[in-house]
Amino acid sequence: MTIAALLAALSLAAQAPAPGAGGRGGRGGAAPTAPAFVRPAAYPERPPVAKDILDRGRAAYGVNCNFCHGSDARGGEGGPNLLRSELVLNDKRGELIGKVILNGQGEMPAIKLSDSTIGDIADYIHSFKVGGYDITRNPPPSILVGDAKAGEQAFAKTCGSCHSVTGDLKGIGSKIADPKALQNGWLMPGGGGGRGGGRGGPSPFNVPPVTVTVTPTGGKAITGRLVRIDDFIVTLTDDAGTQKTFRRDGEVPKVVINDPMKAHKDLLPKYTDADIHNITSYLVTIK
Ligand code: HEC
Ligand code: HEC
Questions:
Q1: Cα(179)–Cα(281) distance, rounded to whole angstroms?
Q2: Of 48, 74, 115, 233, which is least packed with CB atoms within 10 Å of its CB?
Q3: ∠ CA(96), CA(99), CA(100), 5° rounding?
Q4: pLDDT, tens digit, 9 for 90 and up, residues 189-208
Q5: Would the pLDDT of 287 be above 70?
Q6: Ligand 2 binding pocket mutation candidate from 186, 210, 261, 281 (most atoms within 8 A of CB)
């Protein structure tokens, strides 16, 4: 072998990556930015992203995109599944996603965000695992993505003052077998008004109605089921089933509304998505 051939062989060997030297964009001249490097089109493997970028991306996504594309970017709330989008797959760090954000597309409004925020959001979306379990294909188990153990703790903290899984909610996971109905049911037991209210059909629960007590000046208090109330009248149905209407003038007569579901209504805006999933995942285990 000539010296020249030997040198050529050595330099070829030097270009092969040393085992265990897995750092990305290492010091070597043959960095991944070399033009010959081509990303596979489908399910590209992305380099890991720093936690502070992901945290910023998650926050910005939560405020601007979650509402329509879902907290897991798999869509279903009015926007499409972003993880199956060709455009998202081909996006590197917001150069394609950003065009959609800044210009809007179809039903999606244009959203004014800075380039750096768009980059963070793009990194955050790309951090989702594309493979694995696809919630849009398996609607029923999709809401059982929570952690039942965390749900048990959340239940004790948030619900335990009024309910018990060995008392009034005994066997709730068997009584309402469909997790979606169960979730809508505990979120807003009276039905309606809840997140995504109306979609779940009639409430599986019989909750006590809203009542009202009207006390006319110098008269006797009358309590009944509230039928309607506005600034001018209040109408109730008394125990005998008779509907009674009172004219209202400011503080007269005295009107006190008792909504047994007030606690639930007040809690609604306080749950995080994680609370909701965890509590549902816990309640289905209460057989
Ligand atoms: C008001 C609802 C809504 C909001 C908010 C919203 N989107 Fe969209 N988005 C949509 C809809 C609907 C489409 C489908 C548009 C079409 O092509 O008809 C869409 C499409 C997209 C697409 C294109 C997907 C493709 O394959 O063409 C991307 C990317 C996208 N949205 C990202 C985002 C990001 C990131 C945010 C937050 C910064 C966001 N969207 C906020 C509703 C929304
Ligand atoms: C401040 C008290 C209070 C809190 C806190 C509370 N609830 Fe309730 N909940 C009620 C009342 C009152 C009803 C009406 C039915 C009844 O009297 O049991 C009700 C009804 C329900 C029902 C329907 C049960 C049935 O038999 O009709 C479910 C399910 C439920 N709540 C789950 C929960 C869960 C889960 C939490 C916590 C995330 C929670 N509640 C927090 C007071 C509360």
A1: 8
A2: 48
A3: 95
A4: 765 433 333 333 455 677 78
A5: yes
A6: 186
